[in-house]
Specification:
0% strand, 67% helix, globular, mainly alpha, 6 helices
Length: 161
């Protein structure tokens, strides 16, 4: 890269991740991996709500999918169905794992996976243009799934929503 401003910004970013944590995001400084996932989902939902009001529909859709996945991951860890160190990089596999442990039935898990497969990629990579209706529907789905899965846990008082 010949642009020194970009190189300097890259170096500053690299250094920022090497430094001891200071001024960490409030609410996410918890020890338990399950609570980190739970609270990340809470933050994603809050951010999506604000961005929905501003008309950033693509980001709302992306944030809603990620909030759903963080919430499923929270319950998998919380219920002992997943180790905190385990990484499920496949979206379809994560949705399937949720169904396997009874967070929802197989048909619902498959519908989530198809929703992600058919629509998230298309919207995110601008193969299609996100609409307000899509963003509102995805935010509602993410919010309801989050509420349902958190209410079924023993730590719903830890939710930041």
């Amino acid at each position: 890269m010949e642009n020194n401003s970009v190189v300097n910004a890259l170096e500053a970013s690299e250094r920022s991740f090497e430094q001891a944590p200071r001024n960490v995001e409030e609410g996410l400084d918890v020890e338990e991996a399950e609570l980190v996932q739970l609270r990340r989902a809470c933050r994603l939902l809050a951010a999506a709500s604000r961005l929905l009001d501003d008309g950033y529909y693509t980001v709302v859709i992306e944030s809603s999918f990620v909030a759903i996945e963080r919430t499923i991951q929270f319950r998998l860890i919380h219920d002992g169905a997943m180790e905190a160190s385990e990484v499920i990089s496949s979206h379809r596999r994560l949705y399937k794992r949720g169904a396997e442990v009874g967070l929802y039935d197989d048909a619902f898990g498959e519908r989530l996976a198809e929703l992600w497969n058919q629509n998230r990629t298309k919207t995110y990579y601008r193969l299609g243009i996100a609409t307000e209706a899509q963003a509102e529907a995805m935010h509602e789905l993410a919010t309801e799934m989050h509420r349902d899965l958190v209410d079924g846990s023993r730590v719903r008082h830890e939710c930041l929503c």
